[in-house]
Amino acid sequence: MQQISVIGSGTMGNGIAHVFAQYGFQVSLVDTDAGALERALVTIAGNLDRQSGAGVITGAAKQAILDRISPHASLGPGVREADLVVEAITENEAVKLRAFRQLDQLAPQHAILATNTSSISITHIAAATQRPDKVVGMHFMNPVPVMKLVEVIRGKATAGSTMQTVVALARQLEKVPVEVNDTPGFVANRVLMPMINEAIFALHEGVATAESIDTVMKLGMAHPMGPLQLADFIGLDVCLSILNVLHEGLGTPKYAPCPLLVDLVAAGKLGKKTGSGFYNY
Length: 281
Ligand code: NAI
Fold this sequence. Notes:
The chain is α/β, with parallel strands linked by helices.
């Protein structure tokens, strides 16, 4: 396992590319939006500077890590030599199915196709390919260079050997892999999103200000970040997509997204990445 292709260079893709390159892998970073690709390389360089300042890596290592990342504007050249593809594009099932059909055509036969999806069925994604045994969830947490957890999700057709390879790979990146089965939202978002949604309802119903809700959860529950700030950090569009998958997939009204979240996304207020959400940035 030497050559990694990361598809999508947004919030998650740039962090995933960064970590693989940091641990010595050759990385192709693919995004169809040239601007996103440029921003990702700037973000990675900035995060490497921070790691260098904190003594995590040496100054000399920074350039070597950057040199291992090659940007690509289209899938073909970006995945031609991949041993592992990690897809981190928009959280939308139709978009992911289309991408996996293409990846299946373009990536070498032996390549594992992993998805960083937060909530979408690994089994459905796998069924869009001719290699469902080699399709797996590899769900990193944000920010990827900092957070230790990787949920490794077994689809109905995922082979045991694929799981073992991805678990071993996560350990090589000094992450802690946790194996979970394929149900909507897996573990992380099934537990996290109802809390974020409830915090949004509390704001929507005027129980308290955003700052007060976040302070209660930070100081009262020892959360490092309040749920509304965390939602801004994740991206409100991503939160809404995940809640919709939980709501439709698990079929109970308890996951129905708060109308305030729906409105903020419709207004283009997606959180930190657009400069405003529950807070201004
Ligand atoms: P994002 O919106 O920041 O970035 C997505 C990127 O994918 C964009 O740059 C877009 O141009 C690119 N893209 C879209 N379609 C493409 C295609 N067909 N080919 C190549 N590039 C394409 O999204 P984000 O937040 O990075 O999420 C990506 C995935 O990671 C989603 O599945 C999400 O659920 C998951 N995730 C997100 C987390 C978060 O905190 N934002 C945490 C863990 C997982």
